[in-house]
Amino acid sequence: MTEGKILPNVIIYSLPIMAAGLLQVLYNAADLIVIGNFSGQVSVAAVGATGPITALIVNSFIGMSIGVSIILSQFFGNHSDERIKDAVHTSMLFSAILGFIIMCVMLAFSSPLLEATDCPEECLAGSVLYLNIYSIGIPANMIYNFGAAILKAKGNTKSPFIYLAVSGLVNVVLNVITVTLFSMDVDGVATATTVSQYLSAYLVVRKLMSLDDSTKLYLKDLRLKKDIVIKLIRYGTPSAIQNSLYSISNLQIQSAINSFGTAAISGNSAAASVESLTGTMVTSFGSAAIAFIGQNIGAKKPERVRRSILCCGMFCILIATVGGVSSYLFGKGLLALYIPGEIMAIEYGVVRMKYNMVFYFITGFNNIFVSSNQAFGYSAIPAANSIFSILGIRTLWMNFIYPLSPTLDNVYVCYPITWAVSALLNGITLLIVYSRYRRGKVKMI
């Protein structure tokens, strides 16, 4: 990351992350596809109604694990082996404890959360069952994300990809077995997801324990180092908050979508799954930006920092544009894979894609702005920007603009508008932060 040509190295680093993300999306899509083909629209809606809540959980995990990436990238850049060891052991124990706490909270409040989104009565029981079983896998999901963040920070993106490929394949096989052979419904796909999460957590822990450098994990050395915990909270919490703000705002949006019935819910769920295919490719280069920028900051190579921002930014914007437009153009065919024969649900899904995918290039800009700010150690400012642009404006929109014309179009149009405001604020922030860095006013972690 700190030597050689940046562009090809960014691609080599990002491709396994992208492939792993795509596999994750496809395996998650398998839940909906299997349910849609064997159980029907109501079951798809039941799983889909949990989407904003499970996204809130997963995005928070990823946000917290970004704290690990930020810390370790700079530690690797300046070769602080003892600090790397402390960060590895603290972050893995921290992830397990936090995952267990979140699991307990979700099991206690799954039903009230779904009721708060106005989940339709015919879907509610299935949604609660799915969410409860899914919650059991939360500790494993947290452990995997933190472990994968450690491997990615040191430049190993291949192993997390392999682990997701293996666990995802198990997920798909179990989906088919539980639904077709054992006649299970949403409980079958939820069980398959949970089993695959524990498998991926086991694989990443085993990998860390097999290493022979400062990132080697010793179970006997697991302990919480106060200064590392503070850094994890300082750099991870703002990222978790920022990621979760999208999901929190989507809970209110989901409530509006739920009011249009099960066809709208299933169409929205299928469209969101297609959308995430492009999203995961964009975020892979955001992950690359954090690692490359962070390591070159630690290595005190400002020119490589600048070029890392430009290279990663180019790919973020290009993929968001091409992927977004292509998804919309082939939207009906893609949606039919999830909900075959459900013409009304497909039409609802196309409405979402018209606004989200055509304007998805805006998220490319926003992604590189946010990731670059995080790499410099400024996680709180993008989070504050998101509080205003994503949570604030969407809340105002859904409470004051949407009621004036309560249509699905008026629900979805708030997405590109809030993306644009967020990108503008984060772009301005990056210009200020980068200027401070060039003048030597950005402190090392």
Quick description:
It contains 17 helices and no strands. It has 445 residues and is an all-alpha fold.
Can you offer a commentary on this structure?
It is globular and about 55 Å long. It is built from 17 helices and no strands. It has one domain (about 5-440). With about 450 residues, the chain is mainly alpha-helical. The longest helix is centred in the middle third of the chain and has 37 residues, at about 260-300. It starts with 5 loop residues before the first helix and ends in a 7-residue tail after the last helix. The model has no long low-confidence stretch (mean pLDDT about 85). It has helices at about 5-40, 40-50, 50-75, 80-115, 120-135, 140-155, 160-180, 185-210, 225-260, 260-300, 300-330, 330-340, 345-355, 360-375, 380-400, 410, 415-440.
Keywords:
445 residues; mainly alpha; 84% helix
**Can you summarize the main beta sheet?**
none
Task: Output mean pLDDT.
Answer: 86
- Helix amount, in percent? over 70%
Secondary structural class = mainly alpha
Low-confidence stretches: none
End-to-end gap: 18 Å
> What pattern of helices and strands is seen along the backbone?
HHHHHHHHHHHHHHHHH
Portion in strands: under 5%
Number of domains: 1
Rough shape?
globular
The beta-strand count equals 0
Counted by DSSP, the helix tally is 17
